[in-house]
Write a structure and sequence with these properties.
single chain; Rossmann fold; 3 domains; 5-stranded parallel beta sheet; two-stranded antiparallel sheet; 6 helices; 44% helix
Length: 212
């Protein structure tokens, strides 16, 4: 099964989620980190106050519900109903994810860590969601609490270095040095990037002197 991990811009893309059980709501929670353009179709009880901004239709699914959908997730709790929804989606060329039927899935929802602009995903292509969850938790423990602020600084630095330093190799060395220094700091509110870059050049000069 050849599954290529692809980051897709979900702006103006709509999801239809059929079902409101535990699996459906877990998948909903994942995609809701990226878009609120979601419609839930279910006849089962659902706590609507938990899903502000999301359209909820209390009804049985029919093919008209696919109108305008870019992606569909079906987790009705009934294999027969899920298979019928999958068939309808495939007939219309709409990518579909079906609970507990990895062979019929056009896409998977990986284990996701999202911290601002940092997005990490882990997938076993449906073979072991438990291991995906375990590995995601291990990775999450490695990420510093202030990663969002660090990425903001690094994003600005990348543009500044490109406009000031011609050598790609030199830019890469400076960027890596600053990144590693930031990751060592607990508080970066008062950090001075120019001073960190000065320290980089001081170390480079010292290293050159030692080699001589």
């Amino acid at each position: 099964m050849n599954r290529f991990p692809l980051c897709i811009n979900l702006e103006n893309k709509s999801f239809v989620v059929v079902g409101s059980g535990r699996i459906a709501m877990r998948k909903l929670a994942a995609i809701r980190q990226f878009t609120d353009k979601i419609k839930i179709i279910t006849k089962e009880p659902i706590k609507e106050d938990l899903y502000d901004g999301i359209e909820i239709e209390r009804k049985t699914f029919d093919e008209d519900d696919l109108e305008g959908a870019d992606f569909v997730i079906t987790a009705t709790g009934s294999r027969e109903r899920d298979e019928a929804i999958v068939a309808s989606c495939k007939a219309k060329g709409i990518p579909v994810n079906a609970a507990d039927d990895r062979e019929e899935c056009d896409f998977f929802l990986p284990g996701i860590i999202k911290r601002g602009d940092l997005v990490v995903s882990v997938s076993t292509t449906g073979k072991s969601p438990a291991y995906s969850r375990y590995l995601r938790e291990q990775i999450e423990d490695m990420i510093p609490d202030n990663i969002e602020a660090i990425l903001d600084i690094l994003g600005d630095l990348r543009g500044n270095l490109s406009s000031k330093i011609d050598s790609q190799q030199e830019r890469s060395r400076i960027y890596k040095y600053v990144m590693l220094m930031l990751l060592k700091l607990d508080d970066i509110n008062e950090v001075n990037i120019d001073k960190i870059i000065e320290a980089y050049y001081d170390e480079e000069i010292g290293f050159s002197d030692e080699r001589q």
